[in-house]
Design a protein that fits this description.
Layout lengths: L1 E7 L1 H4 L7 H11 L3 E8 L3 H11 L5 E5 L10 H9 L3 E3 L1 H14 L5 H4 L3 E3 L2 E4 L8 E6 L2 E6 L3 H19 L5 E9 L4 H7 L1 H5 L5 E8 L2 E10 L4 H16 L4 E4 L4 H12 L3 E5 L5 H6 L9 E6 L3 H6 L5 H7 L4 H15 L3 E7 L14 E8 L4 E7 L4 H19 L1
Length: 412
C-alpha cells in the first residue's frame, strides 16, 4: 500500500526545525509493509495545505500529515482539512476531558487557548492523544484516507505506535512484504564500489534494488526486496546476500544498520578493552560520538580537547621540539598526543586528531583539510595517517571523525 507524508510548518521550510518526523515515519511504515512514495513539506498556509492534499491523493490512497495542530493562530491544519473535506467543527467533550486529565496531573489549569484543541472536525474519526493535547483525526472518503497527527515527535510516535499502525493493519490487507539487508563497507569510493558491483547489480531480479548511501570513508549498502507473498522476500534475499558478501570480502565493516560508533563499541566491549581520545581540530566530536552510544561507559575512559599547543604540551606531554620543528599538524605531534592520552587516562587504546578544519589557517604546505590521525595501543602498536579532505569546515570535521574511528577499527 502506497503512502504519502505531508509535514506542515513554516519552521520546516526556513530550516529552523529539522523534519525528523517523516524520516521516522518512513522507517516504521516500511517495516509494516507500507511504501512511502513521496514526502512533502508545506508552510502554515491554508491554500498550500489543501493543494498538497489534493496532489497527494493522486499518488497514494493513504496520506499521513503531521504538524499545525497547536492552539495558536498559525496552526491551521484542521481548518484546511475542514475546507478540503467540506465539513465543520464541533467541541468534543471527550477530547476536552482528556486535556483536563493531562493538565490535572501536573496541577495546571486549562487556559482558553488550550481549550480550543477540543474543537475537532465533524467528518473525522477522532483518536485521543494520550501523550498531548492535540488529537489525531482520521478522515475517510472513497478516494483517500487521511490521518492528521501532531508535529511534536513524542506525540506523533505514540499515536503511530499505539493507535495509527494497528488501525492501518486492520483497515488494509498487507499486499507488499519488504525486507532489507544493510552493510557498512569501507575501502571504496561510491563510484569505485558501483563499478565493482556492476555485474552483480545487473543480475538482480526486478523485485530487488541495491542502494548506495555514502558517508565519509564509509558506504552503507542496502539490498531491498519487495515481494507480494509473505516469506518470499527472505527467500529472494538470502542467496543474493551471500553473493554480495563474497564480492565484498575484506571490506564489510558490519552487517545491519549499526553506525560506526556502535560497531567500535561492540569490538571494544568484546575484547574488554578501553579507549580514550585526544582531539584538536575535531573539538571533542569523536568523544561525543562514542559516548552517544548507550553503555559506552563500559569502554570509554575519557577525552582531552587539546586545541591550544600549551594544552598539547602541558596535559598530553607533546614535546616543544616536535611542535617547533614539525608544527601541530604533523605525524610526530599526533602520535605523541595519542601516547599522552594513553598515559593520562590509563586506557588500552587512544585516538588522536590534529588538523586544519578551516575555513582559514591553511598554508601552501598544509592547506585547509589537512588532518593527521593516530591510534596508539598500550601494547606498543601505533598507526597514523595523513588525510587531505576539502575546504568546508563541517565536512572536514565529520570526515576526520569517521576516519579516526575506521583507523581504530583497523587496529582492533
Amino acid at each position: 500500500m502506497d503512502v504519502e507524508i505531508i509535514t506542515v510548518g513554516d519552521e520546516l521550510l526556513i530550516g529552523q526545525v529539522v523534519d525528523t518526523n517523516s524520516a521516522w515515519m518512513g522507517r516504521v511504515l516500511n517495516d509494516n509493509g507500507f511504501r512511502v512514495v513521496r514526502k512533502t513539506a508545506v508552510g502554515d498556509e491554508e491554500t498550500a495545505i489543501v493543494a498538497a492534499v489534493d496532489e497527494a491523493k493522486k499518488r497514494a490512497p493513504v496520506v499521513m500529515m503531521t504538524g499545525g495542530l497547536g492552539p495558536t493562530k498559525d496552526d491551521i491544519t484542521l481548518h484546511a482539512l475542514c475546507r478540503y473535506f467540506g465539513c465543520g467543527m464541533y467541541f468534543s467533550e471527550e477530547v476536552y476531558a482528556g486535556i483536563e486529565q493531562l493538565f490535572g496531573r501536573s496541577g495546571r489549569p486549562v487556559n482558553e487557548l488550550t481549550r480550543t484543541q477540543a474543537m475537532v472536525p465533524d467528518a473525522a474519526t477522532v483518536i485521543r492523544n494520550r501523550a498531548g493535547t492535540a488529537p489525531c483525526t482520521w478522515f475517510e472518503r472513497d478516494d483517500i484516507l487521511l490521518i492528521s497527527m501532531p508535529g511534536v515527535p513524542s506525540e506523533m510516535k505514540w499515536l503511530m505506535t499505539d493507535e495509527v499502525l494497528p488501525r492501518l493493519r486492520r483497515h488494509f490487507r498487507q499486499d507488499l512484504f519488504i525486507r532489507h539487508q544493510s552493510y557498512r563497507v569501507s575501502g571504496y569510493t561510491e563510484s569505485a564500489l558501483a563499478i565493482h558491483l556492476a555485474g552483480f547489480e545487473d543480475g538482480l531480479p526486478a523485485s530487488v534494488k541495491l542502494a548506495y548511501l555514502p558517508q565519509p570513508g564509509i558506504i552503507r549498502l542496502r539490498l531491498s526486496a519487495y515481494c507480494r507473498q509473505e516469506g518470499e522476500a527472505e527467500e529472494v534475499l538470502a542467496p543474493l546476500c551471500r553473493l554480495l558478501e563474497g564480492r565484498l570480502r575484506g571490506h564489510i565493516i558490519s552487517e545491519g544498520d549499526k553506525d560506526i560508533e556502535a560497531i567500535v563499541g561492540e569490538r571494544l566491549r568484546s575484547r574488554g578493552a578501553t579507549v580514550a581520545t585526544a582531539e584538536s581540530c575535531t573539538g571533542g566530536a569523536i568523544a561525543a560520538l562514542l559516548t552517544s552510544v548507550a553503555g559506552s561507559s563500559d569502554y570509554f575512559r575519557g577525552g582531552i580537547v587539546a586545541y591550544a599547543n600549551a594544552v598539547k604540551q602541558g596535559v598530553l606531554g607533546v614535546s616543544a621540539d616536535a611542535l617547533e620543528r614539525h608544527g601541530a599538524v604533523s605525524r610526530e605531534v599526533v602520535e605523541q598526543m595519542a601516547g599522552g592520552a594513553l598515559k593520562v587516562t590509563g586506557s588500552d587504546f587512544a585516538v588522536a586528531v590534529s588538523g586544519i578544519a578551516g575555513p582559514g589557517g591553511g598554508t601552501a604546505e598544509k592547506p585547509v583539510g589537512t588532518v593527521w590521525i593516530a591510534v596508539a595501543g598500550r601494547d606498543g602498536r601505533l598507526k597514523s595517517g595523513l588525510y587531505r579532505f576539502g575546504s568546508i569546515r563541517e565536512q572536514n570535521i565529520g570526515r576526520a571523525v569517521n576516519m579516526a574511528l575506521l583507523l581504530l577499527l583497523e587496529m582492533l
